[in-house]
Design goal:
Elements: H1 37-61, E1 69-73, H2 77-89, E2 94-100, H3 107-118, E3 122-127, H4 131-143, H5 149-171, E4 176-179, H6 195-199, H7 213-218, H8 222-225, E5 233-235, H9 245-256, H10 266-278, H11 283-293, H12 301-309, H13 316-332, H14 336-343
Parallel strand pairs: 1-2, 1-4, 2-3, 4-5
The structure holds zinc ion.
Zinc ion is lined by residues 5, 7-8, 10, 24-25, 27-28.
């Protein structure tokens, strides 16, 4: 019989989830941990120290450069809140960078316009629509290096976007780059990137072989883009602040007078849906369940139902995503069904 966890959104139809006598799933009862969860727990333990040092470093650099920090914004509410926190509450001079990729609709830019009306910041929009970006995405999907679609493609996409943001910081000589990831999205025990990665490595993903000359220009490359006398740091402030997505949404709404609607990413929806066929579960819902477990997100029966429906091979969301995926296949000149068949184990 189908059972739902009384705390999060997981249910017994999912491959590795059992609901115990107490009504809790294997993850809420603490019996099981997701592979990435131990890093988040370690991060939580170090939070206080990180937070104190973060405040000190921010103050030390205030007003020293043209901008106090660069923020990567997605148009979603987490990065919108980070922007509000730093530009309004902390009164820092912020350059916000928005990367428009091949899969974005217009919601993100609509949200950014709402922010622009109330929050003081400079905005840079970078568009990733050239042929080279199509090549990067289609290769990442075709090669499918990790066990799931999302785990193979999302890191390449985020590395690509981080590269653009970092180049912008170097060009404007800004020492801090902040991203609006919350603790469940940070898969590392620190909230700051290792310096080694920023200062000594080209970011062209290993999966790309052959002629990489054009990629060396696209991805961050310290030899080419670093500025002398400037060491840039990349951090996730929301992961160490007492950030709660519900409270943040309320605060943002009362400040902006408008709701920040989720901009979504059509590629992400489609990849998650393909993962259901490839590995049997939707990786995003697992992370969502984690945030609910930690009290960062709230849940209700509708979300439980959505989670259950998404475990079914046939459901209305899937039909909608099939339509979305046709558009992406055409844009990138790829065939999801063939890639799925090749990799199904
Ligand atoms: Zn649970």
């Amino acid at each position: 019989m189908l059972k739902f966890c009384k705390k999060c959104i997981l249910n017994s139809a999912m491959p590795d989830v059992k609901i115990g006598q107490d009504g809790l799933c294997s993850y809420c009862s603490g019996e099981k941990h997701e592979s990435w969860e131990s890093n988040v727990i370690l991060l939580e333990k170090k939070k206080d120290n990180f937070r104190k040092q973060f405040e000190i470093d921010l103050e030390k650099n205030r007003g020293k450069y043209k901008y106090d920090c660069v923020i990567g914004i997605s148009g979603g509410k987490d990065s919108a809140y980070l922007l509000y926190y730093l530009a309004v509450e902390k009164k820092l001079k912020v350059l916000a960078v928005y990367i428009k990729d091949l899969f974005d609709g217009n919601q993100a830019l609509e949200n950014i316009n709402v922010l622009k009306n109330k929050i003081p910041f400079d905005l840079k929009v970078i568009s990733l629509t050239d042929k080279i970006y199509k090549k990067i995405y289609s290769q990442a999907i075709n090669l499918l290096e990790q066990k799931s679609f999302t785990e193979s493609v999302c890191p390449v996409c985020s590395r690509l976007k981080m590269s653009c943001i970092l180049k912008e910081a170097a060009q404007n000589k800004v020492p801090f780059v902040f991203m609006g990831f919350v603790s469940g999205q940070v898969n590392k025990p620190d909230f700051e990137w290792e310096r080694e990665i920023i200062e000594n490595r080209s970011w062209v993903p290993d999966i790309f072989t052959g002629d990489k000359d054009d990629l060396l220009d696209v991805f961050w490359n310290p030899v080419k883009y670093s500025k002398p006398d400037l060491s840039i740091r990349i951090m996730y402030p929301l992961a160490i602040l007492d950030y709660n997505s519900r409270d943040a949404a309320i605060k943002l709404f009362s400040f902006l007078g408008k709701k920040i609607k989720s901009p979504g990413c059509s590629l992400f929806s489609v990849l998650n849906d393909l993962d259901l066929d490839l590995i049997g579960y939707n990786t995003f819902l697992r992370k969502k369940a984690y945030w609910i477990r930690k009290g960062i997100l709230k849940t209700n029966n509708i979300q439980r139902l959505v989670c259950f429906l998404s475990t079914l091979k046939f459901n209305p969301f899937r039909l909608y995503r099939k339509i979305l995926s046709k558009g992406i296949e055409k844009k990138l000149n790829i065939d999801f069904t063939a890639i799925l068949l090749k990799n199904k184990r």
